[in-house]
From TrEMBL, chains A, B, C:
Top-level taxonomy: Bacteria, Pseudomonadati, Pseudomonadota, Betaproteobacteria, Burkholderiales
Residues in Rieske domain copies: 7-107
Protein name: Vanillate O-demethylase monooxygenase subunit
InterPro entries named among the record's database cross-references: ARHD_Rieske_2Fe_2S (IPR015881), Cholesterol_7-desaturase (IPR050584), Rieske_2Fe-2S (IPR017941), Rieske_2Fe-2S_sf (IPR036922), VanA_C_cat (IPR044043)
Top-rank taxon: Bacteria
Keyword terms: 2Fe-2S, Iron, Iron-sulfur, Metal-binding, Methyltransferase, Monooxygenase, Oxidoreductase, Transferase
Organism: Noviherbaspirillum humi
A Gene Ontology biological process term: methylation
Cross-referenced Gene3D superfamilies: Naphthalene 1,2-dioxygenase Alpha Subunit, Chain A, domain 1, Rieske [2Fe-2S] iron-sulphur domain
GO MF, one example: iron ion binding
SUPFAM superfamilies, per database record: Bet v1-like, ISP domain
Length: 348, 348, 348
């Protein structure tokens, strides 16, 4: 159950460097590669000749070539050529709209004619020289919505990430959740607390005292179909918190692009955008490594939670106030799903 | 097909030391831990909040805490607390009756009100300082009843364990099987034979001649739901065999607690209780290692036998006199199953 | 969908040296071993006593003994003996006709009474001292017919085996395919080309110039049920090609015995028979190693092609002229399948 008429992150540019990439997204087996003019293309990963995956082939003169018998496929899904063959009557394969932007390849798995580039959210940090980004990719064996729940309720940090970003004050601070149009925002502010290890390190990087009280914030933004961007940070206590002058704070955006693979698995593109020391690649690497460990801690929990839910499919889960972020996000997803269903039934 | 109203071995105390243990027993996912006063508790391994396995959590102040969002669960399956939440309306999860006795944790996966501690078999050897016990745990991918069959027909030792405890005289000696109430006993006595390697070693440990003829016995006791205890031993030939004076014999009890996990897999708690040199931990370790190897030899046979039976589900297997132990044990199991079915239909 | 009334390669003699071998062929679990007089026997791999696989047993005095409880099984599927048991009433298990010939064990998985040794194809190279053979076995997770397609359309060499036997002239040369009775032959001749690396090496072994133009040929023979024998070679250009005098050429036969295991997996016995330097075991080993690498390159392609076909079962694949070899071979297979269906319906 995932909306198909939406932009999802498919991969990063390094994954299609020099060779095509096969990846299943929203149930569709796709191949990604750089076609004519270096433009990224996405096609069904299925050669119309004998069904071989095109992703096992290669790119020659900016065209995708099947690695089995040399069929040359156009980025529109029409066969261009094949040794000694007339290809005009060959059946087409699906092509998928693609955008390369913000350091990611985005794909629209649904109806091509509805793919509007304007529907891709604007990510200011990804275009500004004041920001740096580092991240990675995990394959997680659970429904992508369990990951949305996870990220829209950060009280789990106290337990799952107790040695890095968790602290009991997260549980104790009230949370406010609201939906504005398609966006869900859930916020938590903690005042006059001691920073947990991850943030002590960030304070140090910013030349701020790490052992003095801080104000800390977490503002999670859900954007359809399944992106979660979390403004996080700490400021020297009493300097205005989230609104403090930059010299008093260390802050960043946790970036989570969650792309369904099947009903019970997804691709998790995680990362962090920061607006301090953006020109320091060693810092980027250090943060990336730390964050990679932290996000790895969620994996076992989510995959075993999925197993439990599959074993007891009839059980209703609780929806507490701390779950409001996930609950409201799922409502937005459900609305998208309903719209797609309705559109299909009108066509049918 | 396993009786649920019965005491099964769930785990050993070392497995719940300092952290909860998740284990599926008779189809139920359970979590085991030491709760208030150090008393072992068993609950459904399913947090009522979001379905996370409670076994991924931890024990704090003798209470189980969910590792995802900090829900504190009582050993009765009622939520005790959760940060910033009123938990009174939270749904309960199942709790399972548990007994810690004889060095094992026993669980009753069925109806709580029928769980009578008196139904736990008495194991005299486990409470006597004259006896020592060593054992281990294997996960075996076959119906637990194939393991019962295996242990109630020791002619397999000649073939599966030919280098340790097997010898052709086992096949050649007649076997007597009888059911007394719920207990099935199958016995075999071999007179004036040469001991196989395992028993030569035991004779040596007891200061007895290892190369002279012995009388050997095997008395297998099946006790419901699926425990098999085997009195085994050798005595210097002509001294009375099973009834010989202790100074002439080396004997022990092979202990097998067989706990279904699913219809086609089980937990196999194997071990040996001996009443010679009980204070010698090195001897315990040596026997444990030898026995671990021997019982590992059964695993491939049983798992492939299970595969064969699943591939040819309609084939009838033979029931020979040597199989009488398994056949009669299955009859006891079937009687338990019928009683449970009947009780359910009366309720329904 | 595989013909069962046919001779398939089951294994090679070294695989049953000293111990029985369990292998599933055409959906039947079989055990192979050397029985009375060293004659190979094939039986169902299922002990009539308790369903244990007989392949976990051993051979004693030229008879198969079950490794679980010592049942001694005859090569006709009738139990010979069992310790302390009368075995006359034991149910029989299936036995399968077997022939040992040409360095292989051949089995007939279908109706015993139709198993005619005369239906085994004659392989002259396997009986002649002028030829040497080396080969290996791969387990491939795809329908055996995808392997037949692969071998009956060698244009894939240009892509899958580009560094060894592939070259663009294969794609460019016309291919001629014809069916004669049960045999399908697809041929390709390339004149005045430069040999690819594998053939340069072969020319060198034959004392011929490796950098001068050659004529190259590939003549693929499909023989039911699923054998593919490919005459391949190169000759110094202009000396008559395929018909050139032996002193001017290097040639061999690629040998492919393809034995279905399940509907979507098979055993692939690959090898090469050559009629140059037959007494050179180092050369045999070198060729075997090279060929093993080459045939390993097909595996990923075929297994992922199978996954794609299973995911999109309704898609029609193309049948181009280059596919004629596979298409016509499948027609022969389909005819065999139809005959078996018809024979069954007459019986029914």
């Amino acid at each position: 159950m995932f909306p198909k008429n939406a932009w999802y992150v498919a991969c990063t540019p390094d994954e299609i460097e020099g060779k095509p990439l096969g990846r299943q997204i929203c149930g569709e087996k796709m191949v990604f590669y750089r076609g004519p003019g270096g433009k990224v293309a996405a096609l069904e990963d299925f050669c119309p000749h004998r069904g071989a995956p095109l992703s096992l082939g290669f790119v020659r003169d900016e065209q995708l070539v099947c690695g089995y018998h040399g069929l040359e496929m156009g980025c529109d899904g029409k066969t261009i050529s094949m040794p000694l063959q007339r290809v005009r009557g060959f059946p087409c394969i699906k092509s998928f709209p693609v955008i390369e932007r913000y350091g990611f390849i985005w794909v629209w798995p649904g109806e091509k004619e509805k793919a509007d580039p304007a529907k891709l959210h604007h990510l200011a940090w990804a275009e500004s020289p004041d920001w740096a980004y580092g991240g990675g990719l995990y394959h997680i064996k659970c429904d992508y919505r369990l990951m949305v729940d996870n990220l829209m309720d950060l009280t789990h940090e106290t337990y799952v990430h107790s040695t890095s970003i968790g602290q009991k004050e997260i549980d104790e601070a009230p949370v406010i959740t609201k939906t504005e149009g398609d966006e869900v925002v859930t916020s938590r502010f903690m005042e006059n607390i001691i920073a947990p290890p991850f943030w002590k390190q960030a304070l140090r990087f910013n030349g701020l005292p790490e052992d003095e009280p801080v104000d800390r914030w977490q503002i999670c933004h859900f954007l359809p179909p399944s992106h979660v961007l979390i403004e996080v940070g700490v400021a020297v206590a009493g300097k205005g918190g989230y609104n403090a002058d930059p010299q008093y704070k260390a802050s960043s955006i946790v970036v989570d692009f969650i792309t369904p693979e099947t009903e019970t698995s997804h691709w998790y593109f995680w990362g962090m955008a920061r607006n301090f020391k953006p020109q320091d690649p060693e810092l980027t690497a250090a943060i990336r490594e730390g964050q990679g460990k932290i996000f790895g801690e969620d994996r076992e929990m989510l995959e075993k939670q999925q197993e439990n839910i599959l074993k007891y499919p009839d059980r209703k889960l609780l929806m507490l106030n701390i779950d409001a972020g996930g609950v409201q996000s799922r409502r937005v997803i459900d609305r998208y799903l309903a719209e797609e269903r309705e559109a299909r039934s009108l066509v049918g």
